[in-house]
Amino acid sequence: MVLIFTSCSKTENKNSNPKKSNEIIKTEKPKEVTAKDLIQKFKDSKMPIGDVIEYTAETDKNKFLGRPGQYIAKTDFYDTRIEKTDDNYCSIEIFNNTGDMNNRKTYLENIIKSMPTLTQYLYDNNKTLLRLSNTLSPDQASEYKNILEKQ
């Protein structure tokens, strides 16, 4: 008899449902990369960053900053390996979405095709467009590209 009672007491109720938790799991959005973050990454990677200019809607030379479909942040900087002139700046442009960034990149590529003297390196990653002076060598420009791609 002891055997019968023992085997009966081990019966499990397979139809029971465990209590559902009312716990809310919060997921954090990945931090958006800013131009300031990218400049710091370049500096941390020992890139020769000279003067840095952060633009506002009022100081942006193109008057695109914050306008519909345009960049939402723009920062220029100089690479100290090349002569500092108005034409030798490098630029970081951040957009609300990749579509706006791709439109801007295509626009710049079309200008470069029609006016080769305005050639520059154009690299993108997600919502960031990196524009580098054509005075940089391909190897020097690739250093920036590699850092951008790690974002």
**How much of the sequence is in beta strands?**
15-25%
Share in helix: 25-40%
H/E series = HHEEEHEEH
Average pLDDT: 86
Low-confidence stretches: 1-9
Count of all domains: 1
Count of alpha/pi helices: 4
What's the total number of strands?
Answer: 5
Choose one word for the global shape: globular
Strand order of the largest sheet: 1-2-3-5-4
Global structural class:
alpha+beta
First and last CA, distance: 70 Å
Supply Rg.
Answer: 27 Å
Q: What oligomeric state best describes the polypeptide chains here?
A: single chain
What kind of sheet is the major sheet? 5 strands, antiparallel
Short description:
The protein is of the alpha+beta class. Helices cover 31% and strands 20% of the residues.
What does this protein look like?
- The chain has 151 residues and is α+β, with helices and mostly antiparallel strands.
- The chain has one domain (34-149).
- The protein is 31% helix and 20% strand.
- The chain is built from four helices and five strands, in the order ααβββαββα.
- The protein has helices spanning 2-9, 35-44, 98-114, 138-149; strands spanning 49-54, 73-79, 90-94, 120-125, 128-133.
- It has a five-stranded antiparallel β-sheet with strand order 1-2-3-5-4, with helices on both faces.
- A hairpin with a 2-residue loop joins strand 4 and strand 5 (128-133).
- The N and C termini lie far apart (70 Å).
- Residues 1-9 have low confidence and may be disordered.
